[in-house]
From TrEMBL:
Residues 1-240 form the ABC transporter domain. PROSITE patterns: ABC_TRANSPORTER_1, ABC_TRANSPORTER_2. InterPro entries: AAA+_ATPase, ABC_transporter-like_ATP-bd, ABC_transporter-like_CS, MetN_ABC, MetN_ABC_transporter-like, NIL_domain, P-loop_NTPase. The keyword Transmembrane helix does not apply. GO terms for cellular component: plasma membrane. Belongs to the ABC transporter superfamily. GO terms for molecular function: ATP binding; ATP hydrolysis activity. This is Metal ABC transporter ATPase.
Length: 327
């Protein structure tokens, strides 16, 4: 899928509002791509443009070599079937069982009953709910309902699974389970997955690449491993949160771990580096994680002697640790 210079404007009483401003991104087949941004960033408008529910003011959305923004009628409806959509809430029909909810889009598409039954059985097994086929939504947990929603989205064998805040209504343990399922489906089916989210933790957990939106425009974009390794990127800070202690007048330097050019890659190594230069220090706070197969993090180094901040900054900068004065 390729989005090229996508722009969407709306007219309001106060003038023209630009919801999307020349947004471009490419998602190769089989990639899990996160689109992250805070409220008002343009995520909802982008979803509607991707699926043909909203016609952009300009730009293209190309899927399988076809620009869906210029399609109409039956051609547009056929193009929409390339997308399976998973919503924040599963939106299951209470009157239908899990199996019947998964079957619904196939019934609408006119499939024969025997073919529907076989496909539903396959999909419920795929999402780990074979034993829940006859349960109604009220008999399922939130995570199980979301699994049914994923099975339903996969019913017509789409090329792209578009997930709109798929875990924001779930607890942490269930979120991990659903993200693991999405990764497993990508690996087994070779399907492309696009996850729209405001939660950096979702991107950190499952995405191969990420696009950060802000005020309708692309702020940062790239492979996750590269973005989280570079402390100059905004996503580096958002994806590696650092719980900072209360300000107390102490002098601290904030340091990035995991940059590919750094000569020191561990907390102990950083403290030892400073100690060799006669600079005594300790760690006030740290966050270290493995993201996209790379060990990355941020930490606050607390200096025993505030007069040595310039010397410490020079030592850390020389090791490509990108120090910043934090207090």
């Amino acid at each position: 899928m390729a989005v090229r210079d996508l722009t969407k404007t709306f007219e309001s009483r106060s003038g023209t509002v630009t919801a999307l401003d020349r947004v471009s991104l490419t998602v190769p087949r089989g990639e899990i791509h996160g689109i992250v941004g805070r409220s008002g960033a343009g995520k909802s408008t982008l979803i509607r443009c991707l699926t043909g529910l909203e016609r952009p003011t300009s730009g293209e959305v190309v899927v399988a070599g076809e620009d869906i923004t210029v399609l109409r009628g039956d051609q547009l409806r056929a193009a929409r079937r390339r997308f399976g959509v998973v919503y924040q809430h599963a939106n299951l029909l209470d009157s239908r069982t899990a199996a019947d909810n998964v079957a619904l889009p196939l019934e609408i598409a006119g499939w024969e009953k025997a073919r529907i039954d076989a496909r539903v059985t396959e999909l419920l097994d795929l999402v780990g709910l074979s034993d829940r086929a006859r349960n109604h939504p009220g008999q399922l947990s939130g995570g199980q309902q979301q699994r049914v929603g994923i099975a339903r989205a996969l019913a017509a064998d789409p090329e792209i699974l578009l997930c709109d805040e798929p875990t924001s209504a779930l607890d942490a343990a269930t979120t991990g389970s659903i993200l693991g399922l999405l990764r497993e489906l990508r690996d087994r089916l070779g399907i492309t997955v696009v996850i729209i989210t405001h939660e950096p933790s979702v991107v950190r957990e499952v995405c191969d690449a990420v696009t950060l939106l802000g005020d309708g425009a692309v702020i940062e974009q790239g492979r996750l491993g590269a973005l989280i390794s570079d402390p100059s990127n905004r996503l580096h800070r958002e994806l590696i949160p650092l719980v900072e202690p209360a300000a107390d007048g102490l002098t601290r330097l904030q340091v990035a771990l995991g940059h590919p050019d750094a000569t020191v890659g561990t907390i102990d190594g950083i403290l030892a580096l400073l100690r060799r230069e006669g600079i005594e220090s300790d760690v006030a706070a740290a966050t270290v994680e493995t993201i996209a197969g790379r060990r990355v993090g941020r930490l606050l180094v607390e200096l025993a002697d505030p007069s040595q901040v310039a010397s410490a900054h020079k030592v850390l900068d020389g090791a490509n640790l990108h120090p910043e004065v934090a207090a």
